[in-house]
Input
Amino acid sequence: MKSELIELIARVLEVLRINMRWMTWNLFLAFIPLALSMWLFRTKRGRSWVWWLGFLVFYAFLPNAPYLLTDVIHLIDDIRNIQSVWMITLVIIPVYLLVILSGFQAYVISLINLGYYLHRISKSQWIIAVELITHALCALGIYWGRFLRFNSWDFITQPDALLTRGIEETLGKQPLLIIAVTFIILVGLYWIMKRVTLGFINQLNNTTTIQSESVNSHRPKAE
Output
């Protein structure tokens, strides 16, 4: 019994070690558009050529954030390798949930920042349309990444292959169906997570305001 437990723990640690490599890399790619969204949309700067270059890079890397949703396919292999309900439930699944939710949260905050920017430049009426277009582009990017194995930097390293092979192999009935389903999933999850995130931000702001008012009310008045 003891040797079996040691073997199981060793197997779980090996699975986590292997997973940490691709999970860390995919999370790094997911947080690139988040960092760019803070720079592009939360700071007051003019739309110079540097800004537009950053904007293009932002959209090139943005599909990496929701792409983590598709990494759930690796969970199936991990379940087969470990075959322990407790280890799967208490270790493997929580790790996957943390990584996937972190990636998707980066996607949500990135689009919230974009919406904030549109509101700031008096283009609030464009927010929903821009979000839907972004979901569609990311659904396409996820398909290219998962099935055609393209990367964000292929826009620079092999743009011809990206356009020719990417378009040719996307126009089939099955690829379009996969992209459509992915789009629907992105719209639904984003709608939920956006409201949860904005609700949390509003609650945090309200709490900060109440605390600030409480501190000010206890300050002695100047004579």
